[in-house]
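Hey, can you fold this one?
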Amino acid sequence: MGMITGLLLAQPSMDRAIEDMKDARESVAEELTEISSTRISLVSVNYNNTTSVLNLTMENDGSNVIPLEDFDLLLNGTYVSGGIGNTGYFYPGEIHSVSLSNVTDPRSVKIIGPWGISDSTSNIGSG
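Sure. Predicted structure:
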């Protein structure tokens, strides 16, 4: 009798736990879909040695809208405070340009978006 009472008392908790597991699985599936359809590319990187300005052009070649403040930037492997310094949204198919002042001797550039999606280059043009 005690065992039956125990099972009856545990049933609502078990139902909630099963529902929580289903919700977690759905959430993970949605996030995996977001990750797999997010892509960014550095289209061009140019450095003007006279003005110390680094110009980046990047493209959202995925299918998700990405908040621009979600981007981080590494120059020569070092984190740049403020990332790309923009607010707003980066829409699929859109090209976005960023200019960074007071840059010295850039040898590599890496942009990092949500979920660690990134692109990098050490092919830096002049101009």
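Strands lie at 40-48, 53-60, 66-67, 72-75, 78-79, 89-90, 95-100, 109-112, 118-121, 125-126. Let me know if you want another pass with a different chain boundary.
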